[in-house]
Amino acid sequence: MANKLRNRIAQGNTEGGFTLIELLVVIIILGILLAIAVPSYIGFKAKAEKSAAAANVRAAVPSVEAFYADNGAYTNMSVGGSAASPPGLAYYDPGSAAKVTVESSSANTYCISATQGGSTWYKNGPAGRILEVNGTGSTAGGALCSTQ
After folding, report:
1. pTM for the full model?
2. Structural domain span for residue 114
3. For the segment 7-21, what is each residue's pLDDT rounded down to a tens digit?
4. Domain assignment of residue 36, yes or no
5. Quick one: pLDDT band at residue 104, thresholds 50, 70, 90?
6. Which of 129, 61, 52, 131 is nearest to 89 (CA)?
7. Residue 13 lies in a domain
8. Residues 6+ apart with CB under 8 A from 37
């Protein structure tokens, strides 16, 4: 028996490759790494969507206030970009106006919102905070444009 093994080794095994056990070990290691990485990625993605939606609302506030300064009221405010009377938010800031929605506007108050992924944020202005629709913690808001 030992002679047979020595002969096989001496002849040299021309067939290279991995054994089944080696391949299974690699697959198990990859599975463990994926089990760790995928939930982290999903969590990071959700946080990024929340931050982006809140930032879009925050970026639109100066154009809303510019609209008020030019027109003396928030009435008839829209996201349109024409120079018509009154002009829309895109007239003041085309970049942020494309990312927000004017939910409501009256003489002294407004509500704008932005949605990114599954996260929607809004601001009842001018003195309101930027809140997440049905959020939790310090940024918790109720239904869209509800007063807090």
Report:
1. 0.71
2. 20-141
3. 766 666 566 678 899
4. yes
5. confident
6. 61
7. no
8. none
